[in-house]
Amino acid sequence: MKDATMPIYSPDRHTCAPSYVKLTRQPITGGTYRPLADDEDSNACAPSTFSCHHSSKLYTQRSAIHAISDNTSVFISGAGTLPCLPEMASSGSVSKAEIDNNEQIASSELQPHQPAEQPLNQVVSVCKRAAHTTAKTLSTAGHTAVKATKVTGHAIHTAATAVKNAWHTFINFKAVQLIIKFFRKAYGPWKKRMRFSYAFYAIVFTLLTSAEVIFLQWGMYSEPTYDKSNEVDQTTKILNSVAGQVTKFVSQMWLEQKSLFLVNFVGLGLIYLALIFVTNRFWIATLLFGTAITAFGVANSIKIQLRNEPIIPADFTFISGGDAGNIASFIPDNSQQFVENAVTVVIWIIAICLLLFLLDRRKCFIYCSWRKPFASAKNTVGTFSRALAAVVSVVILASYATNLGTGGSWSNMWAAKQGYTPTLFDAAEDARNNGPATTFLSLTKAPTMDKPEGYSKQKMQAISKKYSKLANSINKSRTQQLTDSTAIMILSETFADPTRLPDITFDEDPIPNIRNIMGTTTSGTMLSPGYGGGTANIEYQALTGLSLANFSDSMIVPYQQLVPTQSNPYSFNQIWTQKYGESGSEAVHPYYQSMYLRNTNYKKFGFSRLYSLDSATPVEHTEKIGESPYVSDSSTYQDVLDLIKNQKNPEFLQVVTMQNHMPYSNYYEAEDVLQSSVTDDTPDDEHSAINVFSTGLKYTDQATLDFLSQLNQINKPITVIFYGDHLPGIYLKEEQNPDDSFLLHETDYFIWSNDASPSANVKLDDSEAAFSSSNYFMSSAAEHMNAKISPYLALLTKLHEEIPAISRVISNRGGIGLGTATYLQSDGTVTDSTSMSKTQKQLLADYKLVQYDQTSGKNYLKESDFMSVD
To answer: How far apart are CA 865 and CA 870, in angstroms?
Structure first.
């Protein structure tokens, strides 16, 4: 029994195939005991056999995955015995052939009953190996990530330790310890610092609001100049100075019982209060109010200087359109110091407000608790009061502003009692008289146009029939079609004859070529509603045929206040798009497309493309003259020529140039600058600006001649409508002279056709063309081209015959213009609506009805053929 428990080395384990086949275990009883020494194959178990066993080579047995284990028992039943291979035991090694033969025998004897399970087991094996490989890969990745995390954590720990050691080293310095001790001792008193009283807040509120009212009003005035030949006493000079005019504006509360200072104070005060209650932080609101109103005042002053127009709500579309940087480029050199001083003041306001915010322990203007609003009665009342104050302050501000410009409203009636008399048709004059804050708030809600008497669907149908008959009558004698020619409407930036103004002479004519062209084709003087600015208004009139004189006084800039709200506004380019589709009209403006919202407005008008500096397809030619920041007129003209050469059909092309836009710095070579002679009392800045501006006109003059010459070489009928929009705001001396007001609103225009056009060399009589306004240009072009017209153009044609020019009031200071509009007769004299003939009054009434229907009414005329050209 002792021997039976000992390990037995039997060569049978090597002579039976395969060695790893597992036999069925048999019980000891019933088995056959085979003594190793007495067995007939005992020779196979000789010591030499053991040595052979240990020295034999190992061969891997290839068999099915379900091979039987080699754990063979020394007790073997008769039925389960496997045949032994004596020859394998007797030799020291076995051949591969023998092993393969043995394998085949074993496989055939032991596995004949499992052939169907073999493929399934192989799939299972592959899956197991794949799972094992994936697990191993994930394990490796996990170990790598853990290792990287440990390395990173160690690095962070090392860095943190270094910082901590450095910090401890720093704070252990004696000087630092003294500072720390100081702040520890000061923390107690700091925590107990006082809360500023509401009375102190009221004082700051009153002083800051009053200061801002005075600052805004100060920016509306400029120092007067006096002719040296006139003796002016010192008292008059003081009263007419900026300080004197501001003092008069404030003191009229007591001297004239006109509390316009109070009206502006209330307007700004409501803005201030809304900021306080919305932010619930007095000093933060003070910072925002002081910074914003100061910046507003600076911008307002510069705009008055350049364009004689205050900041209005519509101007903020420039900022929302991303043009703030472009507007900043218009700041003249002589205003740079003013801007820098204003920036310094703003920095001081910010610094003082932040300091007071830290010193004041009262953080909230009205106590509230948003986290626990109902924890106590104090929290509930405070939170409710804070929310209510914010809502009420905003509502009152909105109601005051939106009603201030509406007659009969509560805020308008209150302001009228304080002496408020609106003159919004001249925003600059309104701001001087009533204050820029009041003017701005009056324009926050701008009614487009007052409803004319008798407006109805039946009335508009009658007007459509009336002017359809007039159009048919006119068209009987006309043989051409507008759409058979390409029409190019060119708005030349600030183009106006500089020799027209008195006291200014030139040794060289700045515009000899255009003067010669005007002498040979339809041309005249255009009455412009703008001076120093207002380009988009004159452009709007030219494209639509509508007049600003018919709009409400608060409708200052239709491009920004009206067109964006219209769904389908009419413009003359649609005559071409109705025939040729989208390719019927394009526009070119070598500046930024969002200025005056041209990108969106042109799309509403139906232009297929706007080519600008930043459009999807930008202008190709962007050359400039000298140091000028603006694209030259010659480059703009070349872009237009490229469009004409590539066009498939006649087009309407809208062109707005930029070359002569203000400011007028030293852009050109000194030897190229025109020199003018002015009176001795003309300021040097004005004289220099006149010279630079006139030099730009000289370049425009030559570029325009070259452009027309190239159009003459194109075998396509082309008609050009060329006009200047307004004079530049550089005539400071003339601005102060009421007698020059009319001259500051006169520009030049001409209508010209190339040699390939049937209307080449046509010149309308001066009785028809000598005076005009931009709303008449398309009707005049149709007459020049002998082209058939629509009922709408028939109305404008007849109106132009009776009232040659219509504009907003030129200047109420100079006595030019009565009511809300200026009307010129054929001889250039001013007339008013009360002295007009019956025919003129009827035409003007019909014109207002048509304009109201298109802009504010039901657009009944759209249902008719009023705008269609047969």
So the answer is: 9
